[in-house]
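Thread: Modeling a multi-component assembly for a lab meeting

Hi all, long-time lurker, first post. My supervisor asked me to bring a structural picture of a complex we are working on to next week's group meeting, and I have zero experience with this. I have the sequence lines for every component (469 residues in total). Could someone generate the structure of the whole assembly? Inputs are pasted exactly as I received them:
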Amino acid sequence: MTALHVLTGMIAAATVASTGAITGLAATDTAQQQALKAQAKAAAAQQAGAGVVDRAYRTVVSESVTTAAASGGSLTPSPKPTTSAKASKTTTVAKPVTTPKPVVAPKPAAPKPAAPKPAPAPVVSSGS
Amino acid sequence: MTLALHPATPAVPVSTHTPQEAGDTAYHRGAQPALRTWRALGTYVHLGVADATVADDAAALAAAVLDDVDAACSRFRPDSDLVRANQAGGQWVSVNPILVGAIRVALRAADSTDGLVDPTLGELMVAAGYDRTFAQLGGRADANALPTLVSRGWADVRIEGTQVQVPTGLALDLGATGKAFAADLVALTLVEQLDVAVVVSVGGDIRAHAPEGAEVTWPVDVAADLRAWSDNDPGVCRVSLTAGGLATSSVTARRWVRAGSTWHHVLDPRTGRPAQTPWLAVTAYGACAADANTATTAAIVLGESAPDWLAEHDVAARLLAADGSVHRTPTWPIQLEEPRT
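Re: Modeling a multi-component assembly
Sure thing. I ran the full set together rather than chain by chain. Output:
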């Protein structure tokens, strides 16, 4: 009987040892896989960053507009730059005028107290 | 299922169709509004400008924006950035930032609808026969073998800066959200560069936008398709939009026959077939045109359960059923809805 116990114990010990070894092996594999994955990721990132040559694009759409449209929002109006190109970009026809301009078109000098403005024509939302 | 539209509560107009104005804008100073129409991206474009004196400049700038979108995002132009990315076999490709934006919007739509709006059905769309512009298609298509569907393939599309990677075996088709994104781009660009309030409809996907402090309320005719609009069908109505987006998706336009069956362009990513839906058209408000389109496309795909889904996500929507009945979600501003005059 004692011998049987010893045998059982040996088998149990062997089982524990082998299981531990297998677990250890698995842990090693996982670490290796992780390393490989990290390498692959780095390679992909490198390819994305350096392997592909960025093209230059000309577009009438500003970066801020593209970013705003892509994120589902609107342009943030408050921190409008007051300097350089951006400022000049917005000084267009519709900008409020504080000093009288030479009148080219036969506009009345003072705005008449007005006939009601025409409603805008409708735009259409339909399947297309 | 999560719907992270921006914001969850859509931009519902608060006034009637009388133009409202505030602040020192051209419109406020007595400008007359103007409307310009033309075709781009294979569909119609309507542009409302609050100040007629800049309408031509606005139309020219809007047309240039749409040209840029077409060059970047068309799947019918062999030289487009989208086609290059689709044909790159899983490699990274440097693309126009506009396409990056369009893909981000499409992926957001997919994520917020749990894949009901799927931008990676390009291969399926081509196999279904829609492999050229709809005008060239002529209503009839070859019955090519349909590809195996890839579940949630959109989740594997990668973007790094201005480079994109489309997984092998998938092709992007931005037909759902692309026109809406284009409408958003046009409206934001016109306000940024011309400082004037505008509304733009690109094939029914609409964005209204105005300079800070300005507000113009635009009338919008809602119809299943342009024929229904021109015939003034009973389902046509007029609503208004002050800011944000409004979109309509329908199954009555872009239909073709393939192997004896009628297909339409709203495909159900769960079945790989045209969405089986009781709705002829679904219209919804959103914070932007892309969000509105995301909701309407998802609703068409969902079919019967769309009203509950839209209400659950607090989307103001109007659904026109094939039997002519109209369903509205609780937040739809029915008080502002009128028959078209």
